[in-house]
Design brief:
The protein is α/β, with parallel strands linked by helices and about 400 residues long. It is about 45% helix and about 15% strand.
Length: about 400
């Protein structure tokens, strides 16, 4: 019997293991994978980039790099973030091994055992796992179609005996809820936090994947706003663009926060892969990123439309959802008396998997929702998968009604 530390007892870590297993099951129609489709990766372009690298840069791919990141990539990111209106002149970029490492570093930097972290409910399961690992006390705040519930947030902060250290949000094409915060809700959130000393983690993995150019303005970062006394740490990722296998993320934070974060990263892994950083930087500097993003937006918009049409065609009238404006996900609402885990048990028998609602609840209880990802499922399986899922739902609803009688 091993004397494991308390840090390994994360409910959500087990959910992630199951999720990754479900996402890669070849015999299933899987709506579970919150990952890009393999057929969309820029394999040819990356091959060309690597083959064209000068020999000294190829050698550098295999070497250690600075903990803060490959300097040319940092410069490239500064230009990208500056175009988005982010205050790169007053902040510093730390390249991380995926944005989840950035979240982990921030948590390690500020949170001691028993400290309070506020999150949305539902919330990104990866972040919940990190917060549990550092033994934080997590409090979930409900969200609606426009973002975090402001009244509920105010009430929660007022009810606590001690000040929360962090508030973690994913405002753009939320995982799992698929929503995007309205500009009004973003301002209201900053007004609530202003002067409280609660640090806002603004996790932004999906903002480049909007479906309509005229709605791009909705993705504007809260860190662009200078009118509020709120410390904001902005995190981003290449995982939903170039691919999760690159393991490239980043954080934009004040110099003081950056300095401590760099020290923590040094102890974690010394540096993020030079190989992947160099390839990503060349991809950007050879002007391949923007055309590739335009391609992805078109692809994912078509996939969303296909899933939306299938849902409208097959889903029971009791099931509702909001059509997303970007990203990877549609978040289905079940009748209150139905659990998504009950749907899942029957659905998996029929060859269809998804992610249950309780996976994204900070306390793993609320279970009247389920997440469907349209990003990874093969197009030819989309309609068939939704039809099977809808039939399973109707059967479960009918059986539950009989039990009531």
């Amino acid at each position: 019997m091993y004397a494991f530390s308390n840090a390994v007892n994360s409910m959500h870590s087990e959910d992630i293991k199951l999720l990754m297993k479900q996402s890669s099951g070849k015999s299933m129609i899987s709506f579970a994978g919150g990952m890009p489709n393999n057929d969309l990766f820029p394999v040819v372009e990356i091959d060309e980039i690597y083959n064209a690298l000068p020999n000294d840069l190829k050698k550098l791919c295999f070497q250690y790099g600075p903990t803060s990141g490959f300097p040319p990539l940092v410069k490239s990111l500064e230009k990208i973030l500056l175009k988005k209106g982010l205050p790169v002149d007053k902040n510093k970029i730390l390249i991380t091994t995926g944005s989840l490492q950035a979240i982990s570093i921030i948590t390690q930097e500020f949170v001691n055992q028993g400290d309070i972290i506020l999150t949305e409910n539902p919330s990104f399961v990866g972040a919940l796992s990190v917060f549990e690992t550092y033994q934080a006390e997590i409090h979930g705040i409900p969200i609606d179609k426009d973002g975090i519930d402001i009244d509920a947030l105010k009430q929660k902060i007022a009810s606590l005996d001690k000040k929360p250290k962090l508030l973690y949000v994913t405002p753009n094409y939320h995982n799992p809820a698929g929503i995007i915060y309205s500009p009004k809700r973003k301002i209201e959130l900053l007004e609530v936090l202003s002067g409280t000393g609660i640090i806002l983690i603004e996790d932004d993995a999906y903002s480049d994947l909007y479906f309509k150019e005229e709605e791009k303005y909705l993705t504007k970062s809260m860190k662009c706003c200078n009118d509020f006394d709120v410390e904001i740490i902005y995190t981003g990722s290449f995982s939903k663009i170039l691919g999760p296998g690159f393991r490239l993320g980043y954080m934009l934070a004040s110099p003081e926060i950056f300095e401590k974060a760099e020290t923590i990263k040094q102890a974690l892994d010394a540096c993020t892969s030079n190989f992947m950083q160099i390839l990503a930087n060349e991809f950007i500097n050879k002007n391949k990123l923007q055309p590739y993003l335009e391609f992805l937006r078109k692809e994912y918009a078509e996939r969303k439309d296909l899933l939306q049409k299938s849902l409208e065609k097959y889903m029971p009238k009791e099931v509702t959802w909001n059509e997303p404006k970007g990203g990877f996900y549609i978040w289905l609402k079940l009748p209150n008396h139905i659990k998504s885990t009950d749907i899942f048990k029957e659905s998996v028998k029929n060859g269809v998997v998804f992610v249950t609602g309780r996976t994204f609840d900070p306390v793993s209880k609320k279970d009247d929702r389920l997440r469907l990802s349209f990003a990874n499922v093969p197009l030819e399986d989309m309609d068939k998968g939704v039809k099977i899922l809808a039939e399973v739902m109707k059967e479960v609803f009918e059986n539950r009604s009989k039990l009531k009688l």
